Amino acid sequence: MTVFHFFNCAVLTFGPHAVYYSATPLSEYDTLGTSVKAAVVYLGTALIKLVCLATFLKVPENDMFDPYQELLKALIGLVDFAGIYFALTQLTHRNISQHHKFQAVGLGWAFADSVLHRLAPLWVGARGLEFTWEYILQGLESNANLVLTVSLAAMGSLIWLRKNKPRTLIPIIYLCAFILATMPTTTSYLKRGLGWQLPNVVSFELFTSLVMAFISWQLFSACQRPSV
Amino acid sequence: MAGRKGRQEVLESVYSVIALVFILVACVELCDAATVVDVYRLIQYDISGVPYGSRLSNLNHHASSFPFSPGTDPSRTVFLINFRDLNLTSIQEYITEKRQLGGLLLLLPQKFSHSNKEAAEEGGQTHEQEQTRGLLIELEQLLIGANIPYPVYFAFEDDKIDAVLDDIKRNDALGQPATATTGGYKFVVSTPEPKKLASSTLTNIQGWLPGLKAAGDTNQLPTIAIVASYDTFGAAPALSVGSDSNGSGAVALLEIARLFSCLYSNPKTRGKYNLLFGLTSGGPYNYNGTQKWLRSLDQRLRESIDYAICLNSIGSLDSELWMHVSKPPENAFIKQLYEGFSDVAADLGVKVGVKHKKINISNSRVAWEHEQFSRVRITAATLSELSVAPGLLESFGGLHDQRPLVNPAAVVRSVKLVAESLARHIYGYQGKNIQIFKDGSSLAVNPSYVTSWLDLLSRTPRVAPFLPKNDPFILALKKELEDHTAEVNIQHELLDGIFTFYDSTKSQLNIYQVASVTFDLLLSLVLGSYLILLFCFLVITTRGLDDLIGLFRRPPSRKMKSG
């Protein structure tokens, strides 16, 4: 029975990525190569992050929220941002529109993140006899993460790739990008600083991801308008 | 060509490595149970090939409380029963009708009874405790004497398992099938198949305290033997500590050895009797160890034994003591022995009665230890609080026989009784009112010594087949006897024939909270519809509704594309 549960959780964790790819025009323009490249960039970034974390962070003795350490962690988290920048600007993509480029990068990024962070715990944990809600929640978290990453990539593409943005929107774009980039720190604060339970944290993440996605979408289409 | 071939080989080796990794990952078994509980298996043994006890050890079933709901299949369910609300007759029915269950887990109270003193203050409670103890004895005999084709385990109550039991009961009362949200539990004990123990060693420990020979006396000195069997037998071998049967006897023997070692260390007070102390094993199996020990004794030594006193279950304060003999009480030796005891007993305010039970040589059953002595024509008596001879494998330290059952004061009293009457016999003060081991003197019985040894014995399960030759406990007994006697011998013997035992007496129970099949099905339905909705939503927002409809109208989209 437990394999069934594992299968369910895996579908919840990785299904949305596949659906996103096949349902949107990404599949029609065959942007898989871009996503794969983004995933590879993610791997590199993760490695750099690991090295940084290992160098600068102390091993936490307890599960408390230490502001200084968390700040450092957030700064190291900005390496992600650099990775996305690299993936968006430096990689030579085949001729795909900006519209699809950031989606492909975000998708590849989020998928690699899910595989790295969630596949192993899922394989080890969800096949156990003991039933917990944890893996289902983890799957939901992965969904929220997908939305957040795509939003972040959208912001990145607005910042770096689009030159003629409406002036008034620039601070909002930067603010959004900042919020998106600091999401991991925020959730970690909620979890450990405020002691929220996992279901609450996940619902918070889902909620913010939807809100941020909506805002990013509005921003993106607002920037698109003058050129169209 | 060669290059391509080489590349193929490399690829193949990579595939095999990947396959290996997958196999390794699949083999990872993690113990991530919600609760892990120590459980003790019901003993499994054969008597001349006839199987008894719990025949299996592996458990992997859903749990249910006992009067099970009609929906459950008893052969695939573990029944979790608290001893407090056990209905013995229904269990009896199950066992005698040999109905198949998935397994049985009996929860024993943490402390069987708080303490005798406390209980004595509250009369009602004592009665209740007596009742539970009786029930436990009955249950134990039932389980030991039956052939049970499923695993039976004992565990102790604690908060965790009580919570599990409450949960299970609640679900059973509602008649709900086990689901993730309402708490279905799976009990898993994974142990290797129980194996026959190759041989069971009985270890007898013998201590020798020589008496003082008068100068020029060539005759051998007479010997007095004091014997107690120290091993136990009970429903759960890992729990049979046998504080009273026969921990109390063994402790009394050690204390008597200590007292006489004080006397014998000084030549002025060394008596004209040798003292032989024997801690024998194999008590539950017709005193097999005693029999072997006697056989191996030197012929001359054996003939020099004047009489032997066996100590058995002397730890309870409120019952009178009985001297069990196999010769008629009118026999001169027996009479002398009995008078020696009753004289001292009168001084101590104890009643000692005498019980005579003839030996049937053709019957292999030996109910009392002294009967082994009587069979080799040595005068012997057993001092015990039991008035009736116990049956085979009965009264040898079952689950109920724990430390609270024994009162150290009773053991001290028995020690005084035996030591005093021995001393009067040795020094020839029969019938005189002299207290040699007077309280407060340097020769007084030491209650803290008795208590500490009782505590140790009450912590050590001592079922002989599961007690290895060089068990620390046996070494401790030997060391203790070495301190008090001049010469100590250890004798290892094999347990005779008809008994075969199986291992795996103790293991760990993993309790998992599991989801039901229905829940998993439901979950996958929900997930499927979620993904479909997501798909539709994404198609509509990015390509428009027409595209979505188009997708369903013209499924061979590739054809369209090429067209």
From TrEMBL, chain A:
Keywords: Cell membrane, Endoplasmic reticulum, Membrane, Transmembrane, Transmembrane helix
Pfam families per the UniProt record, alphabetical: DUF2053
Location within or outside the cell: Cell membrane; Endoplasmic reticulum membrane
Any GO CC annotation of this UniProt entry: endoplasmic reticulum membrane
InterPro entries named among the record's database cross-references: TMEM147
TM ranges: 39-59, 71-92, 104-124, 144-161, 168-190, 202-220
The name this protein goes by in its record: BOS complex subunit TMEM147
Family statement drawn from the similarity comment of this UniProt entry: Belongs to the TMEM147 family.
Membrane topology, from the record: Multi-pass membrane protein
UniProtKB/TrEMBL annotation, chain B:
A biological-process GO annotation: regulation of signal transduction
Top-level taxon of the source organism: Eukaryota
UniProt entry keywords in alphabetical sequence: Endoplasmic reticulum, Glycoprotein, Membrane, Signal, Transmembrane, Transmembrane helix
UniProt-listed InterPro entries: EF_Hand_1_Ca_BS, Nicalin
Transmembrane segments: 521-545
Gene3D superfamilies reported in the protein's UniProt record: Zn peptidases
Keyword Hydrolase recorded: no
Protein location: Endoplasmic reticulum membrane
GO CC annotation terms, alphabetical: endoplasmic reticulum membrane
Keyword Ubl conjugation: no
Membrane topology, record value: Single-pass membrane protein
Protein family (similarity comment): Belongs to the nicastrin family.
Name recorded for this polypeptide: Nicalin
Organism: Papaver atlanticum
Species lineage: Eukaryota, Viridiplantae, Streptophyta, Embryophyta, Tracheophyta
